[in-house]
Each structure stands twice: as structure tokens, then as C-alpha cells.
Amino acid sequence: MSSPVAWSSGRIRLFKRPFHEYRLTDRVAMSQMPLFVTSLLTAFLVWAFFTETMSNPLFVTFLVSQLVLMALCYLVPWDRLPYTSFLTIPLLDFVSIALGREGGQESLTGISLLAVFPVIWLCGSGYYPRAALWLSFLGPLAIIWVPLLLKGSYAPQDFARSLLLPVMMLGIGVSVSVLTLSMMRQQSQLEEKDEQLRANLRTSKRQEELLNTVLETVHLGVLAVDADGHDILMNRKQRANHELARPRDIADPNESQLLVFGADRKTPVPVQERPVRRAVLGETFTDYLVWLGEGKEQRAFVTTARAMKDSEGGFAGSVIVFSDVTDLVNALTAKDDFVSSVSHEFRTPLTSILGYVEILLADEPEETQRGMLEIIRRNSERLLTLVSDLLSSRNGQLIVTPHTVDVADLVRASVSSAMPRAAAAGVVLEARTPGQLEAKVDSARISQVLDNLVSNAIKYSPDGGKVVVSLAREDGHLVCRVSDTGMGMSPEDSSEVFAKFFRTSSVRRTAIPGVGLGLPISKAIVEAHGGTIGVESTLGEGTTFTFRVPVSPS
User: Fold this and answer.
1) Which residues are paired to 152 by β-bridges?
2) From CA 337, how far away is CA 345, in angstroms rounded?
3) What is the torsional sign of CA 450, 453, 456, 462?
4) Rounded Cα distance, 503 and 509, in Å
5) Cα–Cα dist 178/407, whole Å
6) What residues have CB less than 8 Å from 1, skipping those under 6 apart?
7) What is the pTM of this model?
8) Over the stretch 431-482, which tens digit does the pLDDT of each residue have?
9) Sheet containing strand 427-432, strands side by side
10) 437-450: per-residue pLDDT in tens?
């Protein structure tokens, strides 16, 4: 009887566990038990007050039949028979109650009301609902009418008076059936929802396993914290990072006790500026550099944090990613040290060259020789400036000294100086400038930018073409454009072109000489003037560099 009987499908408090969890024999016995107990109470009342009824064969048969039916509930192997065969018990109950009514109605009225128990059993079983409703009416009716018909002495009024009980039992049967069907629908819905929850749980577990596998595989430290700063997820790599930052004398340090240092590898990062603390406070950041640990085991990490939001958009925590960049930082440091060392080595011979050129110029050489010496001096000074810029850019400093100068003249001088190289490369070089355009800039620095941009335009037009240098005044700014029809760049290379030592993939393949320092230095010069520099390029079609500086910088 695993079907939802109205009073037995739920967790009835009289039972130690839900009714449907009992074995079938026990459920059949429990369903018969209310009628059996009531029959025993009826027998006690009759024995106590109507002893003569105890000798009535019909009443005795009623009591014996109840004992037999209760015994059958336990003795019959219901689980081996067709499943609904146990419904024969309530049908036999109608016969037993009819015997009891005939044998005891002279002494105890209302025995026919015991029919309510088999009616509830039949209608509450959930099986054959229409037949159960018919039996809930016909069963009680038979209890009354059959004896009348067997006696043969009856009047039409006798049949009419006896209709109340069957109608009442039918009403009870309808109510029980409605409740049972409602509970069956609810149980069906609950089972469907339970299956959905189980399926969602299985999916969630698979996703969790996949996530854990991915997190344990990646070579990045991943840490998730809730809004209160408590760790809710930490992968294998991050556990190793945490162990690296743990002081050796503290087993379980808090955030303020971890060994977290700044870029100089010595100064402890204040607690409020540490990556995890910043993330807990709701900050979002990218590539924030810190050093973890100390001594030879110290490692550099760039950290990135993103906030998590709850369903209402509120802050629910953060995910922080730690990426080990120790080798990259060390390589950049070595590169800067190399640049600094080489720049210092260049400075001495350049100073010597300039000194001897000054001596030769002081001897009043011939005009042809003077022109050559002036070129040597000019280019030596420019090379010395480049060396100084390398040192300044490494130290993060670049000094400009603005003064009023005709920038149009600087453009023409730069183009004139580059004409021999352009002719050798088969490039048409053209300057488009106004007659005069004065601005307050550092003439040596702006000439350095112009020379570098023009030189690059010629260099990266290996198959000839045209280079145009234009100058104009726009909205209080000096605007200079250097355009070529050379090899151009991809969008990815264009975004990195101002990075130190960067060279495009096409340039590396064609073995065009260069070290990738001219554009970063040019950018630093323009920005030192309070201006901007940008690039527009199409691979295979050409490139245009544009820089803007204020005509009168503050």
C-alpha cells in the first residue's frame, strides 16, 4: 500500500517512521488496526452491559471474523500476490460488520457506523477510485438491506429510513477520495521536484568537480573570499603562495602578519594596500605587483581582483588571482641594468668625439670640411642625448627646456637631413609646413622626435614609396603627422609599438635593424611637453604617427 492513503501517506506521528517505509504486511495490518481495536471496544461494552448478546451467534461470528481478518493481515504473503489483492480485507469487513449489526443491534445501536473504516480504506487507497465510491455507498446499503431482504418482512419505509447511513458513508468516501487525489498530485509534484533537485545536484557536483580540476591544474593562484574576508576557495597553487608568505614562526598568520613587500622587495606593504584586503574592501584592480616571502625564496606576483555580486547586486566577495612573474621582473631588471651599463659606456667615447670636433672647428677648417664636422657634431650630440634619455627613462625622469622656436624650420631641417637616406631607399620624402610656426618647445627634443619618426618611416618602407611630414596648428596645439606607404602594422602590434624594446613580428622577419627604443623615448619627450602621440596603421598599406603638443605649455 505505497499509494497515498489520506491518513497514512504522510508522516503520521503515531508511527516511528513514514507509513510508506513500512513493509507491505505491516501497512495492511495498520490499515485494519483501527476497525479491529474498535471491534474489541465494542465487544467489551457488550460484555459489560449486554451479556446476553455475547451468546448471539451472529455477534460472536462478527468478533471471530475480525480476529480472523486481523490474522490474515499478517499471515497472507501480500507481496507475492497481485498488488491490490489486500483490498479484499475491507470488502470482507463489510460482511463482518453486517453480521455484527444483526447480532448486536438489540443491545448496542450504531454498529453499522463501523463501515466508515473500510470506506476510508477503500477510498483512501487511491486505487479504483470510482469503484471505491460505489462501494462506499453500496457496502453500507447492503449491510442494512440484505438482512431485510433475507427476513422477507419489510415495508417501503424500512428501505427509505436506511438510506441515511449509505449517503453519509458516500459523503465520507467522496471527501477521502478528494483528499487522497489532492495528496497524490502533491506527492507527484514533490517527486518531480525532488528528481529535478537531484538532477541539479548531480549537475552541480559535476561542475564543482570540473571547477576544482581546472583550478588545481592552472599555474595561477586563485583565492575567493566572502564579503567578511573569509576564505571560501583556494587552489593548490595559492596554498603554496600562502605558505611562501607565512612567517616561519607563525602557524596560522592573519593578513597583517603575512610577508608581503612592495616593488623594492624590502618595504612591507601596508595592510590596507595588500591585494586581499583591497579586494575585501570591494576594490577592482589589475596587475598589482607585490613580493611574497623573504630571502632567496622571495617571489614576485601580479595580482588581479574582481568583485562578486549577489542576486540583488550587492557585494558578495571577491576573486583574487596571483600570477608569478618573478622571472619576468628579473629579466626586466637585468635589461634595465644592461641599458644603464651600456649607456654609461657610450657616454665617455661620445664626449671625447665631441671634444675633438670642437677642437677641429676651432682651427677654422675649409667650408667643405666645416660642413662635415658640423654633421659629425650634430649627430654626436644627438647620440649623446639618446644615451642620456636611456638613463633618464630607466630612472623615470626626462627633462625638457621649452623656449620659443620656429617648429616649421625644425621639420624642414629634419627632412633635409634625411634626404640622402630616403634617396638611397627609393623613398620620396616631402615636407608640408607653413612658412613659419612658432611654439614654446624644447627644440633639441622635438628635433629628436622628428628625426626618429622620419627615420622609421624611411626604414619601414623597404620597397620604396612616399613619406610626407606635415605640420599644422589646431586648437592651440602643434600637430605634426608623419605618414608613409610602407609595410604597416597589425592592430596587435600597433597597441604595443610604444613599449620599450618592442619590435613588430614583420620587422623581425625582415631583419630591419633596430632595438625598439626610439618610439618609447619619443613618447616620453612628447608627454614631457604635456602632449600626446598616437599611431594609425594598416598592415601592408602604411602608417601615420601623429604627435600633439601645446603651443604654449603651462
Assistant:
1) none
2) 12
3) negative
4) 10
5) 98
6) 8, 24, 27, 28, 31, 86, 125
7) 0.45
8) 999 999 999 999 988 998 999 899 989 988 877 889 999 999 998 899 999 9
9) 427-432, 465-474, 477-484, 542-550, 532-538
10) 999 999 988 998 99
